[in-house]
Amino acid sequence: MAKNVLGGPSLIFLAAAIVFFAIGNFALGGLGLTLWVALLVLKTMRETASRASADPREEMDAESRSLFSPIRRLTNEIEEVVERNSDSTVMKVVGKEALDEATRIHDQVAKALGVRDDLKRSLRERNMSRAEGDKLLAKAEVEQDPTVKATLLSAVEARKMELSHYAVVEETIAKIDSSVAQAEAALSEMKARLSTKASGEKAMSATDDAELRDTISRMKTLSISYDEAEQLIAGDTP
After folding, report:
1. Residues 113-151 as b or e (16 or more Cβ within 10 Å = b)
2. For residues 117 and 48, what is the distance between their CA atoms, to the nearest angstrom?
3. Burial, 183: exposed, middle or buried (Cβ in 10 Å; 0-12, 13-18, 19+)?
4. CA atoms within 13 A on the CB side of 143
5. What is the pTM for the complete model shown?
6. I want to staple 29 with a disulfide (CB 3.0 to 4.6 A). Which of 12, 21, 77, 216 is the partner?
7. What local confidence, expressed as pLDDT, does residue 54 receive?
């Protein structure tokens, strides 16, 4: 698995970065830290891709399964409404489009939660890094030798840079959680509107039904927001 292949090299780059920072070579230290972050991102993407063809729930932790459960249920219920009312004028016009968007959001939520799990696992190293940084700082504060003190402070800065990466990870997790909540709300609204229109069969043409069109448009916007989250995880700028 990618975790085993990349774990060793990523730790080597991190250790090298700390050493270079300690001896005052900030250019090579920054390069080593950049490579370490890049390998973490690559590992996350590979682990997520390896689960693409399997039932996403099998690899999710308990928290992600809980977040995914209503998404899966609502998508199935939308599909049932569309199929059960296939003769409806509304379903003939917008049913397939709504179901396509619901399915796409379902798949994107599954992928986003897979990435979320990988990022949560990466946070386990944060406490160890913070503790080591505190120890280095404590040593630097009592160190009398200026050269040794400077070396210790450089190592402390390296740890601070490492911790700043974890802050980005936390922000990304929060954005994924927010997107999942928005997806659940949009799917719930879509299911309710489809059920109402299918059972009521109002005289208004489905093509002219602004409410349904507005809901589908917002679902499409949610799809774009997930693409942006993936770009953030990969280190790209929108």
Report:
1. bbbbbbbeebeeebeebeeebeebeeebeeeeeeeeeeb
2. 9
3. buried
4. 15
5. 0.61
6. 21
7. 54
- Express each pLDDT in 94-135 by its tens digit: 888 889 999 999 998 998 888 888 888 878 777 777 888 888
Two structure tokens written together for 29: 């230290």
The pLDDT confidence band at residue 53, using thresholds 50, 70 and 90, is very low
The token pair at 164 is 């700043």
Neighbours of 224 (CB within 10 A): 9
Residue with tokens 């954005």: 175
Q: For residue 233, which amino acid is it?
A: I
Termini Cα distance of the chain:
30
Nearest to 119 by CA among 4, 230, 30: 230
3-state secondary structure string across 44-60: HHHHHHCCCCCCHHHHC
* Residue 203 tokens, joined: 């005289």
